Amino acid sequence: RYSSFSRRQELDTLTKVHNPLIGTKTHPSRCPDNSAFKQQKLPAWKPQLTPATVLPSFFLTGAFCLAMGVCLILSANSVREIQFDYSDKCSDCSKLRENSSNWNKECHCSVNFTLKEDILGDVFMYYGLQNFYQNHRRYVISRSDAQLLGRNVNKSYCAPFTTYHNGTPMAPCGAIANSMFNDTIDLFYNLNSSAIQVPVLKTGNSWWTDKNVKFRNPKSYNLSSAFAGTARPPYWHKPVYLLDKEDERNNGYVNEDLIIWMRVSAFATFRNLYRRVKRIRQFADGLPAGNYTFRISYNFPVTKFKGRKHVILSTVAWSGGSNPFLGIAYVVSGTAATLTGFVITAIHLKLRKKKTFFQK
Amino acid sequence: VFQRTEFHLLQIKNQFMCAGEENWVDSRTVYVGHREPPPGTEAYIPQRFPDNRIVSSKYTFWNFVPKNLFEQFRRIANFYFLIIFLVQLIIDTPTSPVTSGLPLLFVITVTAIKQGYEDWLRHKADNAMNQCPVHFIQHGKLVRKQSRKLRVGDIVMVKEDETFPCDLIFLSSSRGDGTCFVTTASLDGESSHKTYYAVQDTKAFHNEQEIDALHATIECEQPQPDLYNYCFTKKSHNTNCLIPGVAIYTGMETKMALNYQAKSQKRSAVENKALINTVLKYVWQSEPFRDEPWYNQKTEPERKRNLFLRAFTDFLAFMVLFNYIIPVSMYVTVEMQKFLGSYFLTWDEEMFDEDTGEGPLVNTSDLNEELGQIEYVFTDKTGTLTENNMEFVECCIEGHVYVPHVICNGQILHDCTEDLFFRALCLCHTVQVKDDDSVDGLKKNQLSRRSCIYISSSPDEVALVEGIQRLGYTYLRLKDNFMEILNRENNIEKFELLEVLSFDSVRRRMSVIVRSSTGDIFLFCKGADSSIFPRVKEGKIDQIRSRVERNAVEGLRTLCVAYKKLTAEEYSNAQKLLQNAKLALQDREKKLAEVYEKIERDFILLGATAVEDRLQEKAADTIEALQKAGIKVWVLTGDKMETAAATCYACKLFRRNTQILELTTKKIEEQSLHDVLFDLSKTVLRHNGSLTRDTFSGLSTDMQDYGLIIDGAALSLIMKPRQDGSSGNYRELFLEICRNCSAVLCCRMAPLQKAQIVKLIKLSKEHPITLAIGDGANDVSMILEAHVGIGIIGKEGRQAARNSDYAIPKFKHLKKMLLVHGHFYYVRISELVQYFFYKNVCFIFPQFLYQFFCGFSQQTLYDTAYLTLYNISFTSLPILLYGLMEQHVSADTLKREPSLYRDVAKNALLRWRAFIYWTFLGVFDAVVFFFGAYFLFDNTIMFGNWTFGTLVFTVLVFTVTLKLALDTHYWTWINHFMIWGSLVFYIIFSLLWGGIIWPFLNYQRMYYVFMQMLSSGPAWLGIILLITVSLLPDVLKKVLCRQLWPTATERIQVKYFFIVVSFFVSEVSNN
Lengths: 360, 1071
Hints:
The structure holds two protein chains of two kinds. Chain A is of the alpha+beta class. In chain A, 29% of the residues lie in helices and 18% in strands. Chain A has helices at 8-11, 51-77, 91-98, 137-140, 145-148, 175-178, 208-214, 223-226, 256-262, 325-359; strands at 16-17, 81-85, 108-115, 119-120, 124-130, 184-191, 194-197, 200-201, 270-277, 286-287, 290-297, 308-314. In chain A, strands 2-12-5-9-8 form a five-stranded antiparallel beta sheet. In chain A, a hairpin with a 2-residue loop joins strand 6 (184-191) and strand 7. In chain A, helix 2 (51-77) packs antiparallel against helix 10 (325-359). In chain B, the strands form six sheets. In chain B, strands 12, 13, 16, 17, 18, 19, 20, 21, 22 and 23 form a ten-stranded mixed beta sheet that branches. A nine-stranded mixed beta sheet of chain B has the order 10-30-29-28-11-24-27-26-25, with helices on both faces. Chain B has 38 helices and 30 strands. Chain B is α/β, with parallel strands linked by helices. In chain B, helix 3 packs across helix 30 and helix 7 crosses helix 10. In chain B, 48% of the residues lie in helices and 17% in strands. Chain B is elongated and about 115 Å long. The interface between A and B is large, with 114 and 137 residues.
């Protein structure tokens, strides 16, 4: 109980001796400061959510959303997109890949399709995966950004793909890098029974900052020496410095296929940019109508986790891809806002009539 | 001339808070001057007493960190977060320990700094006190040392105007008569001087050597925390110092109940979510291709781990993920809001009283919002409703009425009763005389008949003595135990003061026994009529009684005066009894009371006095406003019924058309209590059926309102449990009656009864929030009992103010305190609490939804930095500022329209409906954020999961901040600065956070994510759309509710808004 004393004045059990002849007590004036802040009287704007103020904003929002929605829908409709599920098209390959001991057996398959119309503009080639949980936490954290920056790291967060049993570190380490998408997809244009390979761009597909800042090869006179003392991840066919033999600046950690793969997706169904059609010769305006073939080197097993693989050709518009969601959402909310505006107006008018009626 | 007064005092007991643990014997023996008794007399057990160091500080430099941490983690919330933090450290969880550690550290640090600062102030004050020099006598010499070095048994010398370093026994003084004057201002604020007398045996010692030669032992009680009981000799009443601590504690209890009612539900929501997710996770994982696909293998230890252990770890991990819904920062925000918010109360100019130079005091800020929830106000009458500025109006002697200024004209009858009456009033009091000059003053008084200044703890007494002076009898002084009075013939009469039977509120009377110069011994008694009349055996009782009653009806305070003559034998008996009782070490109070009862009887009635106590300014206005605000005002007073009722009419508690119901002893004597109660309830309830309550206009005029008058005796009958066991019966009936009365007056209340009635209402089935306001020591019990206790910094000392939660200078300030500050505080805190909940639902629910898409793997949606800073910096300041500044209507309007208080009555803003609405809004917004972003990402933007999280988070921060902006009705530049500032801060932070490869981080996942998101058109369009969609329902709800079911507050808002608008329109059109 004694410890409950806390305040000073409670403790002052001291009594003051006062000479009655002189004792005069003066009150210390603690007259408060009368600043506007302390008196809670700062000048203020006091908005009111009355119908009069809110109605215009409802109608304005509605109009804006409707207009925006229409534009977005139109824009999304102008986007051409074709998608092929090739996970079952090459049934032999998918069976072959189910057994991991066949990893070094090659397996090719072709997907034919016909374009009835030209696809004009920039054409992008994507690969898509379904049911592949790139956003699983165990997977997401299994990477080493420091290693990909070209630094020598002792501690890494790549479990369970950090080192081999003999202690050789994997480069790049981690589950994400290890499971990199390794199908090769080539597009052929069948013109007069001769197949022309559609020229594609491997670079310029990733974020500039990723390519130039976030991913760096270790410094050395050449790439293979830079990666000396490391080994390829177990599921890879070739070491990291052989990812792109033709282009030194797209090899090693700065290989754009790797960079794109390393940005893990938000959901289990996702697509990643694979190639862009190079606009030269007959492809200067895009893809002309005609027969095409995807020649796919089938390496990536998906049947084991009941996944699907797609290859997608698409153009883009200012509003993004072919996804109509944004446009529809804008139209819906615009309509909702406008309707609400009308409802509020109706209630407002009715109430006012009632009020005047009562006043009479 | 005494220019220097010296006192020799003996330290008897020091700092009682550290004393008393050692040996709990009933009494302690102190050897004066540390001289041990001669050997052989008795076995000498040296008692060990602590030193005189004052320790009010809680911590020392060394133990601050551990002790403060221990104190803080004793709080359940902090402990919970500590556990979460430890879980994060031990097991592998989705978020880094930083995300919960940093906010916890922040909260702990802020609290520790606050407490440390307070303790530092206490240390400083302690040091100043402990090091102040004290003179004490050692080996016959005067020695100076620091106060903290004093030991029990030291002899201390205190000079004039010095402060006592400890509790002392008064041995002798430099004044010849062995007296000293002491103020107890630092104890109870009473600045009046009290005279103390030296112990008779030592009074003669005058110099150090004499004192030093003293051999004495002192027996006294062990120190007790309750100072009321601790009286060693006939010393003063000391203040009970424990009470404020208790008051703080009750304060803590009540506030918790109001604010955090939703808290436990939140916690169980977290647990439920975690459990659901864990179960779902294992169901989902039951197919092996999902549990461990080839691309996402487990490590060896993970594979080997026991299933149940894994499940438990997962459960904990989910808990960690969802615990943000009860943000640790909420507690610190609420505390800061209360602490800082209370400053607005103390700063309020309108509540500052120029006369006394006092402003409102806040002793605890925990109850701020309760001020907006008051349903019952219990007020004291004297000093609270009235000025406590007494003026002697008249006296009635044997039925003849004397009015002071009339008598000055010399029209007085002379008879012996009259002389006796005046002498009785001159002698029967405890007034002290404070004269300008003790030598000249006497002559001056004789010549001019001008009074010197009288000082007393009771203003009634001063008024009486001053009034009597105008009637010709002047009390001069008390010297050497002789009271000197100057009679009409300018002769000095001397009476020897034999005994003072001091006043107490139970007996309600006081007596003195004096011996006149002729040797007759008189006992004069003065007291309330109820305590005098039963003890009177002769005198003109009926005439005086009727006069007393007449005066009481006029609202005057009446006192009756009686006397009896004692024979020498009777006196010696009485003296013996008194002496025995006074020297009793145990139950002294009780024994004294018994003795008083024996002595004070068989009086001869002399007459009665009437003193007027004027109403405080604006008391009526305040009461009217409180009643309009739907607050029931009860007046609890010790006064007579008639006096109190008159005051109640004067302050408009009762109006002309109020039907008064009486529940008094007189009525109960006529009928049985049972019948009276049933009759009353019938009367009240009959009208209740036809009663239509218009909440807007307050008390409508045609409504019959009732006023109940009850007295202490009747109350104790009602409160007394009945023999047949159905004790609650009368209470319920009584409460039912009270509930239907607009005003209740309880008169003749003992202090404890006041507390009892507060408790009765407090614990009744609606659990109303009660407020008690009073100014005197007799109100302390009621102030402590009520939810909110308010003290008036008044004339009767500071005890009430000190024991209260809030103290105000005048009763009228209660109006602004409740109607304006209380209303604001309540509106602010309720928004704060619910908004905190809302913004964390918005924050965490997407995270919950995300689990369904990431295989229940506890993957977080937001980056660590966002998780950590969301509640600390992105969204914390605007709401804190709202909690400090919001004014939904202006303060003037609140004051002008008391009925607005009803809008927030009965916790209106924190009820289930509001809670459900906020939850719905939070869940709706969270769904909009998450699925909006989900569909936006669907097949369109090839950005990763962190971009997705950042997009959701950006929408989230903007939405919750703009939602607060929508709720803000009072936009000062500070609000603009905080709201827009925190949004800008978020953007700048995100740019910075994503703009650099941070060398100390082992991941760079946020690198350029924010910029890349902003460089994409669809992301912008999506963000704008999602913010709009999330805010629309709230705007819609606001507009519709305003149109269809406007609250009084909103009507007023609109009204004044239109007044302002039409004013501007007319201005414009005129131009």
